[in-house]
Design goal:
Blueprint (H helix, E strand, L loop, with lengths): L8 E4 L3 E7 L2 E6 L2 E4 L6 E8 L3 E10 L5 E12 L4 H7 L3 H16 L5 H6 L1 H16 L4 E13 L1 H70 L5 H22 L12 H25 L1
Helix pairs in contact: 2-4, 5-6, 6-7
């Protein structure tokens, strides 16, 4: 690792720590810097360990409580403890494999007790549990676990597709509810508008009829005063004949009307006038009886 050696001295670089042996037996740890050894006394540098933080990615496949197979990607940051570098050098031959084995054991013992949804919500708790269990064991070998990150949880592709379909169905159902509520409000408003329109239309018709009645009354009174010897009945008959011929004229001038059969003749005009008068008299009599 870039160390410069000669027969009597060795340089340990910054961020590393050396392990010194004498006749094959551990003697001391060599801090970064220049160290002089006496090879004739059996003293030499057995090895160098890095004290920098290392990262190990572990992919674990396991099953949840609701029988869903998932893959968990864990990122583990660890480093050698300087004071116990001799334990790290002599106790563990392959620290990455040992750490990976412990992570597998803890995760596969914890995740099968959780449902898939709980696993997504509590992945931080899973990482915390792995950190606690791994810290207890790996600390005896001269290593410290700095952080454990649960980077990703990957369900089986079929499960992911099913989850997306469920989510889409729920959103469609919610959209249908909102759409139904909107249509309901629209229909209510439309009914209210139609009712208001009919009411206003009725008010308009009533005012129109009132205006026609007032106009007829004024015409009759004015005609009776100007033409002596005429009665109200004769004036009414004259107005009815005039309106009758105006109606026939309007029907004839309109090109969009279909064929209409109506009785025509002076006698029919008189009959129409009598029917109107009889209707008015019957209505007045019925109103008096009610009162």
């Amino acid at each position: 690792m870039g160390n410069t050696s000669c027969m009597f001295c060795t340089c340990v670089e910054q961020g590393n720590i050396g392990v010194v042996e004498r006749f094959g037996r551990f003697e001391k740890l060599a801090e970064p810097g220049l160290h002089i050894f006496n090879p004739f006394a059996g003293q030499y540098l057995a090895g160098i360990l890095s004290t920098r933080s290392s990262s190990l990615d572990v992919r674990i496949e396991t099953k949840t409580k609701d029988n869903v197979f998932v893959q968990l990607l864990c990122s583990i940051q660890y480093r050698v403890v300087k004071a116990h570098a001799d334990d790290a050098f002599y106790e563990l031959q392959n620290p990455d494999e040992q750490i990976r084995a412990y992570v597998f054991d803890v995760v596969r013992a914890l995740v099968p007790r959780m449902n898939l949804d709980d696993l997504f919500e509590q992945k931080g708790e899973v990482a915390k549990a792995v950190l606690e269990e791994l810290g207890k064991v790996i600390g005896d070998y001269g290593y410290s676990i700095e952080h454990i990150l649960m980077v990703d949880i990957i369900p089986d592709p079929a499960v992911r597709t099913a989850m997306n379909e469920i989510n889409a169905a729920q959103r469609l159902q919610l959209a249908s509810v909102y759409k139904g509520e909107a249509e309901k409000v629209l229909q209510v408003k439309r009914a209210e508008a139609e009712a208001e329109s009919k009411y206003l239309g009725g008010v308009g018709v009533a005012r129109q009829r009132q205006a026609i009645t007032d106009g007829l009354r004024e015409n009759i009174l004015d005609f009776s005063h100007k033409v002596e010897g005429t009665s109200a009945k004769e004036v009414m008959d004259l107005i009815m004949i005039t309106q009758y011929f105006d109606t026939i004229k309007d029907l004839g001038n309109s090109s969009t009307n279909t064929t209409v059969f109506i009785p025509h003749g002076p006698g029919h005009v008189r009959d129409i006038g009598e029917q109107i008068r009889n209707g008015l008299m019957e209505a007045s009599t019925a109103q008096i009886n009610v009162e």
